[in-house]
Amino acid sequence: MQSDALLEIADSKEDEEFKDNPAANEMGVRFYAGAPLIDPDGHRLGSLCVIDTKPRKLTAEQRDALRTLADEVMSHLLLRKQKLELEKNLKSHQEFHNLFDSSPDIHCIMDRDFIIEQINRSAKSVLGYSPVEVIGKPIWSFFQEEERAKSLSALKKGLGRQQRHFEIEANIITPSGDIKCISWSVTFKSDKWFASGRDISYQKRWPMNWHYYHWWQVGLPVVWLSAMRQMR
């Protein structure tokens, strides 16, 4: 059906296009009326039709009723399509959230004032607080004062230069008093801050551990090395 108008064939035997239609003849169809099903993009998906084995003609009210029914059918089809798309999006969102929540690194979303709106479960292992405890608080609550000032200064200077992505290393304090070095990747987009933080405390300590290990390997006792450092 190429037309947007309702198609009515009062008697297929008298219609040049339909009188030799094998499907209509096999079913004994004499009367046909169809209203096109057109989606919002203008695509014709088919038609809602009525048939009879006897010739007939629709009244104006019947034609209007058929068009109304066709619109109703199209509405139901669109609602079903939207429902399926919503279910697909929800599933995709849930899968992404599972990935987000299972990461060993911190991932969080903050408003423009750095108030935490969402954060994954790694908040507990890295910051020492559960997600519920940190949501609604500024991220700076977990920074040492000096680190907070330094990081804020770097962010403000970068924003002044239209910079939108930042790499920051800063120490945070856990409830038990432990100090951890966190490497932050921060992006400002759509009036929000998106941040990922990785605990690199071990990597920061490794050079010192390697230094002692090297001297131990070459046969110089660590206590001698410590004494030599104290004499400097």
For this entry, give a set of tags.
8 strands, alpha+beta, Beta-Lactamase, 232 residues, disordered C terminus
The tally of structural domains comes to 3
Radius of gyration: 36 Å
Give the CATH H-level superfamily of the largest domain: PAS domain
Secondary-structure arrangement, i.e. CATH architecture of the largest domain: 2-Layer Sandwich
Q: Helical proportion?
A: 40-55%
Structural category is alpha+beta
CATH C-level class of the largest domain: Alpha Beta
What profile does the largest beta sheet have? 5 strands, antiparallel
Inertia-based shape: rod-shaped
Order of strands, widest sheet: 5-4-8-7-6
User: What proportion strand?
Assistant: 25-35%
Q: Tally the helices: what do you get? A: 7
At the fold tier of CATH, the topology name of the largest domain is Beta-Lactamase
Average pLDDT? 84
Q: What would your notes on this structure say?
A:
The protein is α+β, with helices and mostly antiparallel strands. It folds into three domains: about 90 residues, 2-Layer Sandwich (Beta-Lactamase); about 90 residues, Beta-Lactamase (2-Layer Sandwich), CATH 3.30.450; about 25 residues, no CATH class. It has a five-stranded antiparallel sheet, sandwiched between helices. Strands 1-2-3 form a three-stranded antiparallel sheet, covered by helices on one side. Strand 6 and strand 7 form a beta hairpin. The longest helix is centred in the middle third of the chain and has 43 residues. It starts with 6 loop residues before the first strand and ends with a helix.
